[in-house]
Structures are given as structure tokens and as C-alpha cells.
Amino acid sequence: MARLSLRRLASLWVVLAMLFGGGAVWTWMASNAAWRTHLTQAYVAGLAVHDSLENGSALPPGVSLTQLRAPPALPAGWRETLITLTGGGRPDLARGARLSLRIQSPDIRYPASRVESVGGGTQAAGLASVTRTLARFCSDPRLFVQMDTGPWMRVDGDAVWGCDAAPADLRLLGAVIALAGLGLMLGWVAEVSGAFAAFASALGDHRARNAALPVGGVEELRQTAEAVNLFVAQDRAALENRAMVLSGVSHDLGTPATRLRLRTALIEDPVLRDKLDRDIDEMTTMIDGVLTYTRAEIGDEPFRRLSLTSLAEAVVADYQDVGLAVTLAAPAPRPTRAGTLFARAVTRPIADSHAVIMRGQPTSLRRALSNLIDNALKYGREAVVSVDATADEAWISVTDRGSVLTETDMARLTGAFQRGENAGTHSGVGLGLAIVSTIAAQHGGRLEFLHRSEGLQARLRLARQWA
């Protein structure tokens, strides 16, 4: 299905907005014009009725006069409005014959004070204003008139001011057209902006590097999504190719490294032999470190549910098995308030011994924790590991003993190929903390450093439901 471009879509919006707006305005104005014509016809009919009563002239089409033998009676349940019009148009300006009006309606009582005086203050204008008022309301009233002391006469003008004669009020339809057009435009704009927002959210999501971005919406957005997907695929392919090359180099260097070790064993000078062994170890360690860092960048290990507490226990146990100073701290007691219906709640400390469950990459997390412990042992001689969590976040803390490095130094060491000034003769190529920082980012977290009284603490923060 062909997609419209944003330019064509905006042009279509403008055209449709003009059509909806024009249709709504035309409907509203046409309805107003029809009602003005209807009211004008009723007004003219009222003038003609007065002229007929006064001079005996012909009545307009649709209007008739019927003389009554007795004053009109009010039917049960009906309402009646009494109006008196003098020759001057007001009771205090009495000139000529007086005109009495009775308006009977089954559901409306016409307030005499609200009868508009249109066309001046004459008696004829007053009667015309009454018939114009009758045309404004759908009530099918009965109009009776009496000229001075003459007989009562019934004025039948339903064809002019009755309900059937009134035009359809299309102003509500005009408002509906305007609102429908506005709703359609706003919905369309929301759909397009929502597609852009969804694309931006997917682009900023942690899985954007491993999953294709949604391709949809207008043509420009589709082209952008396809271009970004192509770029991400090329970038990922480059990382995978780099990892494959490094893996091949690491494998191919294994045989020469083994031959070099065998040959260095034949060197009689122990100092020279030790130097060559260290160089070989550093070379292989560097290759393995770069390969591990590249694999951490790719992050293709699947996420699954795991117990962060059990993972930390297993890693700490591996270090303890070889006699290294690594311990796992017990979780700190948490205060809780417990009470009953008959007893006040009391705050009591309880030990939080439950396992911290989260979604993560177990192999990557083991690598990250091992790197933190290795750094603590290298620079602080001892490592104390602790695990804690909240509802949304979990973290592993590794505290060393007596490290001279500051938080600023450790933050700098998260860069690739950065080593501490006190590294001395310790082996390594400066990728340990860079790998940890990369793994933290892949789990929606970060690596931070805190200064404690015991030493420096590295804290690996992780989102518990990141993937």
C-alpha cells in the first residue's frame, strides 16, 4: 500500500480543513438566512392582518380570519397570554381603537414583556411583532384578536408561523460538521505524531541495537526507519565481524604462544625467561580482554529470570575456594511496621533474606561482578560484596579496603584502556571497568563509585525488568 508523504498529507489536511470549515459555515449561515426569512414572512403577515382588521384589505396567503360568536374559551390544560395594543403602541399613548390579543398554547405561555417590538411603536408593528414571536417557537398556538369592542376573531396562520412552516434548524448540524472535521484532523495529526513518537521511543530503547525499528507512518518516517535499521544492521555486523576476527586472532595466536612458552623454558637466564613469560601473558590477556569487550558491546546473550543473590553467592564462592579475601555481606535489616486491630503498629527491624529476582544476562553479570572483585583485590587487597534492591532497581556493591583511588579516578577508569596510577606491575590492559560499564548500560543501569569509611565502593545498578 502506497504511503503518503508528509508534504502531501499536510496539503490534504489543509484542503479537508477548508472543506469542513466551509461546509460548517455554509450550513450555519444558510440556516440563519432561512430563519430570518421565516421570521420576516411572519412579521409581514402580522402587518397584513392588522391592515385587514383596520381597512378590510385582503389577507396574505396562508392566513384567514374567522369571526366568533362568543369570547374564546381556554381549553383545559392550555396556557393563555393576554396582550393589549393601543393606537400609540403603548397603553399610555392611547389613540384610536384598542386591539386585544389572546394567545392560547398547549405548552407555552408567551411573556408579554418579551414580545419584541420590531418596526416602531405602532399598533400594526406590535401585532407583527407578536406573529413574529409566534414563528420563533414551535407550539402551534391559537391567536384571537378583538378590535376595540368588536367581536372576537380567530386568526389562522399555521401555514406562516406554525411548526410545519418553520425551516429546519441546521445550526447544530453545522456545529457537528465543524467538530467532526476538527476531531478528524486532530486524530490524524495525533496518529502521525504518535508514529514519530513511537519511532523515537523505539530508537531510544535499549533493544534498538538488537532489534529492527518499526517501519510505518508517513513516507518520510518509513525512509528514516529503513535508513536507521540499515545503519544499525551494518554497525552490528561490523561488531560481529570484529569479534569474529579477534576470536580468530586469539585462536591463531594460541599455537605460537605455546611454542614461545616452550622455547622460553629452554632459556637458562631466569630473569630473561620471566620477562618473556610476562610479555606472552600480557599479549594473550590483551587479546582476550578486547574480545570480551567487543562481545559485551554486542550483547547478544538472551535475557532470562535469575536470582542476583544466588549469582553473587556463586561468584564469591569461586574466589573463596582459591583462598582470596572475598566475602558476601548479609543484607541490612529493614524496618517494618506491624500491628493488629487491637494493638498499635510497632516498628521492628527484620532481615531481608529473600532472593533478588530480575531479568538479565547471567554470563555478562558474572563477568561484570568478577571484574569489580578483581579491581577491589588489585587495588584494595580485599572485597566485600553485597546485594540489595528496590521494586524497580537492583544493585551489587563491591567495597575494597584502603584503596587510594578516588571516585573521579574510578570514573576515568571506566574508559577503554585506562589503568590506575597504582596499577604497578599488576596485569591487565585497562578494559575491566569499561566492560562493567557496558554491561550495566545493557541492563538499563550504570556503574557508580562511592567513598566509604572502609574504602572505595563500586556499585553496579541494574533495572530489574529491563528486557
What topology does this entry show?
Layout: H1 6-55, E1 64-67, E2 79-85, E3 99-105, H2 123-136, E4 142-147, E5 152-156, H3 158-161, H4 171-204, H5 219-264, H6 270-298, E6 304-307, H7 308-321, E7 326-328, E8 333-338, E9 346-351, E10 357-360, H8 362-380, E11 383-389, E12 393-400, H9 407-412, H10 432-442, E13 446-451, E14 456-463
Parallel strand pairs: 7-11
Antiparallel strand pairs: 1-5, 2-3, 3-4, 4-5, 6-10, 8-9, 11-12, 12-14, 13-14
Helix pairs in contact: 1-2, 1-4, 5-6, 6-10, 8-10
Describe the structure.
With 467 residues, the chain is of the alpha+beta class. 49% of the residues lie in helices and 17% in strands. It has helices at residues 6-55, 123-136, 158-161, 171-204, 219-264, 270-298, 308-321, 362-380, 407-412, 432-442, and strands at 64-67, 79-85, 99-105, 142-147, 152-156, 304-307, 326-328, 333-338, 346-351, 357-360, 383-389, 393-400, 446-451, 456-463. It has a 5-stranded antiparallel beta sheet with strand order 1-5-4-3-2, covered by helices on one side. The protein has a 5-stranded mixed beta sheet with strand order 7-11-12-14-13. Strands 6-10 form a two-stranded antiparallel ribbon. Strand 8 and strand 9 (346-351) form a beta hairpin. The chain is rod-shaped, with a radius of gyration of 47 Å. Residues 422-426 have low confidence and may be disordered.
Main beta-sheet annotation: 5 strands, antiparallel
As a percent range, the share of helical residues equals 40-55%
Low-confidence stretches: 422-426
Mean pLDDT: 79
Helical segment tally?
10
How do the SSEs run, as a string of H and E?
HEEEHEEHHHHEHEEEEHEEHHEE
Measured by DSSP, the beta-strand proportion falls in: 15-25%
- How far apart are the termini? 33 Å
